[in-house]
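Quality-control log, excerpt.
Job 1 of 2 completed; input and output follow.
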Amino acid sequence: MNYRFFIAFFLLLFFVQLAIAQQTEKRYLSGTGNDHTVPWQFYCTAGQNSGKWTTIPVPSNWELQGFGKYNYGFAKDSSRGKEQGLYKHEFQVPASWKGKRINLVFEGAMTDTEVKINGQSAGPTHEGSYYAFKYDISKLLNYGSGNLLEATVSKHSANKSVNAAERQGDFWIFGGIFRPVYLEILPAEHIAHVAIDAKANGAFTAQLQLNTGGKASEVSAQIYTISGQKVGSPFSVKTGNENQSVTLIKTIPNPLRWTSETPNRYKVEFKLIQAGKLVHTVTKAFGFRTVEVKQRDGIYVNGTKIKLKGVNRHSFWPSSGRALSKGVSVLDVNLMKDMNMNAVRMSHYPPDDHFLDVCDSLGLFVFDELAGWHGNYDTPTGTKLLKELIAHDVNHPSVIFWINGNEGGHNYELDPLFAKEDIQKRHVIHAWEDFGGFDTQHYREYNYGIGNYNHGHSITLPTEFLHGLYDGGHGAGLEDYWEAMWQDPMAAGGFLWDFVDQGVVRTDRNEGKGPLDTDGNRGADGIVGPYREKEGSYFTVKEVWSPIKLEHREITPTFDGTFPIENRYYFTNTSQCSFSGKLVKVSGPYDVTKPTSTTFAILAPNLKPSEKGTLKANLPNGWQSYDFLYITAIDPHKRELFTWSFPISLPNNIATSLVKKDGSGAVTMTETDSLYTVSANRIQLIVSRRTGLLKQITNSAGKLPFTNGPILQEGVNNFKNFTEHSDGKNVIIESTFDRKASYNTLQWTIYPSGWVKMRVRYFPDGYFTMMDGVNFSFPEADMKAVKWMGKGPYRVWKNRKKGGSLGVWDKAYNNSETGEAPFIYPEFKGYHANMYWCRFETSGQHFTVATENEDVFFRLFTPAWKTDQWHNYEPIFPSGDISFMQGISSIGTKTQRNETTGPMGMKHIFYDYEKEPARAKEMVLYFDFSGR
């Protein structure tokens, strides 16, 4: 019994080993990514820690490991041409591999790489950083014993065109073996390469390159689902006695199609058979999909016209440079999908293989790019690298376009080679050029750009637009651009610049413990921070690009629960999504109790792509007693599209319940020649009799340094001729209206409770204004935190109001600047929207401000803004320290001033030169200076 068992076990083991031997084996000599590395011997020839043998983790960029010199692309580099990394690594090769084909594969090395095995050259020096290359080292190995791999990596290429294409760009310049190195072990007769074209109609074509050793062979194939179920019957082709290329064709009826919304994948297994014996097996994943460009029309995927909601992505991580991992790829693609993006551009070079794998599996359209920033490869070099690019990435269904260089880095002689090398004949574009039927020009101003696009004949697809810088761009201006793109039949979408702030760890500064370096404003371009910290624009992009669009709706007492919606999906019915609703009654500024809430059902409507309809909420009885209503949409893959919030209670309702006017004591007032001094409930208020401005506040615990207001912003502080009188128990101090001399008016009302009301009626100073509202002074050093009811938690700009949510928020003071270390979000300083009330928590006395006006912004101090060389980005803030605004400024981008990003970026319009009181703007604020 035991004898039979062991016989069966060893037979099973034999067949398993045989099956493994028939497959391509991959043996890593390095680690697999920045989260798993292997130490190699290393010698750096210049810069930090040069001139000595030590070790370095592979893969990595050597600057991030404390070697060499950091360089940004524009920097002059004194070590250019001199900085090299010398690598050594010993490895064993079993005797059983003798007779097999052994390839040594480098997935990516910066920049020129010369390789030796056991002292002998493995082949020509490889020039070019981002492309996988391999050497057949079968005849150079010592089988059954040790071997020595030596690699000399030159940071700067001996080929001027490689430096022009790759290293003289607007990004960090690194050196090193930054992607994995491995041995590829194949049978002597094997399938050398597979290229697949799988159409949406089920037509499957595969071209295989074979090494048959001159033997007659047969290649068979079987398609499977990604989970392993057979699809259709096997199919095969026979070959002659020569090494050759063969083509296999099959039709699969009604396949599940691949799109960014439905990333359905399959796999196909190819078998090379000789003399009835299985020699080699190769398995490849793929997707059925058809991409078609219809000139003067648009991009069609599986017969459906699409628009791309995309972002540019550098391969980057702060502590490892261009050396990444699959975990980083999963993180990045999920962040993009969570922003409701459907596309990504590989700027300005091909990515890691695992990034494309994740785009395949989670669903992103990819524009894959042959490197070239403002310079291009020469034709011989470019031809070689183009072939490596396509051979490596050809089978990814996510890759739908090729890009031949960026912003002038185009070699036109290479254009025909894309179609020659690519079985799918993907379309080729030039970034920032009107070429191939696509106008991809970068950073067009809204009026010029949209106007030009709408009146041109090319499909419009800016491969870079709304250039982020710190907190500018990205979400700021996006809604204006996107709505114009959505309505224009010739617009195919666009790609924001760019995804991540490139803040790098400087190992040459404070042992890598100092702040991350973005090289000033050059690398601070992301929607997320270096470690993927979410900035305010992240949430704006998420709302603007949600494929479920909820139109504006006011919630009135007669509201019937109906929301107008639009399905902006291309392949998904809204019935495949799910919707939920929640009602919330929030706590007040002094409450420690949690908010109360209740949920309600929402039936998903049946709307086809591009259809409009309604979303019906089944509101419970008594819904009017809540403060906010939330609607959440979830996509078919259980990913939140967005949660919209709507006000039920308006600021005047909240102010009425919050502000306590009655008190047991009286309001007393004294006058001097220059001041009114008013006291109520242990609070003393001192106001200038000449200007009406607040001079001093004192409560039972001492002075509160909130003073010098209200100062009108972009209006004349012509409050004059103040008088005082009583209104019941209240004391009122107010200015006198005069159409010419004092048309702006100020009124203070002090209640027995100690609450104070400010009422300002004002006319903005001119036809157009940047900001409207009032300012006060407060020492920034005394501010500790704020708690507010309104939209949050991120700050807003006039051209970036979307993305937030109504609720009660807390935020501790920080002095962070977007895009710069220490990357603390949300930022404290700036404008905050839809204020109901705000409690200011200080090192001394706390105080609370409430309003009965809708759409009031409160502003917290002024960030220490840096700018760009063109002064496009610079945001404008009011004077003073704390402001309450009815109009706020917009923000620009690195390449555009705020007013050129669209209507939302322009100034506010106010026209009334008559200065009649009834036509004035009005702001009412209530103050609680009790310190509670």
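Job 2 of 2 completed; input and output follow.
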Amino acid sequence: MPPHHALLGGHGTVERATKDETALELLVHGVGGTTPEDMLGDPRTVRITGDDTAAVFRRAEDADAERRPDDYRGKPVPEAYVWCNLTSGNGSRALWLLLLPFMVVNLAHWMRPTSRRRRRLVRAYGLLVRLIGLTLTVLLTAAACEVALDLTAWQCAGTPDCSADRAWLGFLATDEAGNGGWWSQPGRRLGLAALAPAALTGLLWYLSRRTWSAYESQQPLPHHPDPEEETHRSALARPGFWYGRRLVARLRAAHTAAGLLTVAAAVGAAAARHDRRPGGPALLDALGWTLEAALAAGGVVIVWVVCRRGRSENRLDRRLDKALVRRLPQAALAVLVLTLLYAGVSRPGWQSAGRLPGDATFGGIALVQGLLVIGLAAVAHALYRSSPAPRTALRGLAGPAVAMLSCALGGVMSGGGAQRVADWLDGAHGSIAGPPVLLTWQASVIPPLLVVVALLCAWLGARTVRIKRRERAQVPLDYPGEPRDPERTRRIAATRARASLTDRAPRIVGTVSAVTLLLGAGALVGAWLTGKVPARAAQGTPDVVEGAAETAQALGSWLIGFGFILFVTWGRRAYKDPSARRTIGILWDVGTFWPRAAHPFAPPCYAERAVPDLTWRMAAWTRATSATGGRLVISGHSQGSVLAAAAAWQLRPSVRKRVALLTYGSPLERLYGRWFPAHFGPAALSSLHREVDCWRNLHRATDPIGGPIGLHGDCGPQVDRAALKDPLAYGRTEAHPLPAPILGHGGYQNDPAFAEERARLLARLKAAVPSPRPAAGEAVTPAPADPPDTAG
């Protein structure tokens, strides 16, 4: 081909890029993070652009590559985008582990099935997930109230046998005759204890606002979709997808207000119940009714705000909601202060006895959560039936299953905290009533759930053995002519068998979620019908039943407390141990890719910083046609391939055509395509394949995360290369005199296939097209077929 072959482009005549022009290879690492030195294979690196949180690096010798184009003829300039500090940068982020239920329910929002014509169902799906997220905020705030108000201030401080061993409760305690200091009156005790859950709500508000300013307020690359773009492209191509500033601000206001009103309700309900006794003061009774009316009105407003609308993705929505929404936390705080003043009024003769009405609170939350999950399952099933995809996890029910698990995690944290604090306060005295009966019932169903999990693990083990036997027969066929080594064959076969277990995850999640829903419903019915803990409710039944109930209650109480301690211990260890912090960082790499669409207190979405970073960098390089030729290969490993695809979707079509995509160890189809079909399903990946210049994917049978893309049909050349050999050599050879390691998910760049595919992509890049011009006057496409999740 002549070096200057003229082509007629969309805006005029331009010259064709040749293999002698400079190209850029942009490397994006995967989960767990790495260093630019490791990515670039050079101990001397310099930062080209970015900051201490996320940046682009080059080798020191390549820092001025644009000024020396003759030195880079026929080879790319390597750059490394390092984003690991977005998720695991400092020790304080390890405490995000305590926000796990919020993160999980946010994942459920993005797991909706693909649907091209059911706009109302899409809105209903997002609405139901947001309501489940709201119940989680109320649940965990109620759990904090249970610990601080009910167990500590109401029960222990009001019981001399319990408070006698707690010197720090002395100024709140009462004696045998019910006498004590100024703070010993129940209303004042509750008001003081209410500061703890209120402070927790304030802390969540502060963290959410701080991360909102750092993540959701990052400006993406401005662009407008071209009219010729296909309507079935992924929603990740929409201009406002990675800019959730308005929605997170709205949800933050609503959830903060919900937490504060929950605290106010816990304090005010106890005082109002006392004032309604026969002969109670009429003025205080009227104040109690007024405050409860204010709480009910506040709850209605909060639900309305959450239901009002969802995400705005078709444009950059830089506005914030009106003052009514932004001032919700201040209004809720005012109601809380008034409630504390109301509860602090002197009420002679008022003594705390029994429990606060926690059973009704936790029972109502559990009932609402169960109904919402069932409703979400019905909507998801209808969406899936409208546009079924064979590879979709759980036939479209992955979102409801994960939402159910988020509720279960919230239950473990709330019930575990209450059980441990009750045991710590009461010790062996048995002088206080303890946590609500429902929490004990919920703890008692954990042993049966663990039996189900054990059976599933046994099934997985048996399946792994069968796959291992099959692979032991296949491994010699993949290495013909090699002398047999039974131990080597066994290790390779075992690695392949374990890697295949990833594809069984939907069945595990679905089964555990279904059993959790059934057992949770049984616990709710048992608590409401008997009003007693399981051991007492089983008294008078056959010995086998009574013994099983006692065992389940004791073991469940220990397990749920152990689960809560495990959460806290992991967070504390990760705060001090960098290696443990790195492990938890991997969890966030996978779980916080998606924007906060269902819960504002979830850990922040790092992609709202990473995707604009990559998009701006690629757009800047492709515009520099005169100096570089504008050719670019973005090379992503593991989670980095997901970021690379998301960034490519955000480019204008004219820029996207100048980009080649190289993915390896990629979960794009194996995990994201199955679990998030509306955004990474076959239609979305096929459109990406058609819109980028070229795309190649490398995978191994030993990789538990990455897999083939599996695109077929009319979307161009095959994306997947045949599965790479792993290990590269079966036995010792001249090229591999020492045993070659089984690489699994890592080491793709060490495989000769990586360099081969990169060279082919660089050689195949199509003609250079004009640099993208300003989008002024550019037509905007109609609303895409997959509508944004809006509720109004």
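Post-run check on job 2. The two ends are 56 Å apart (CA to CA).
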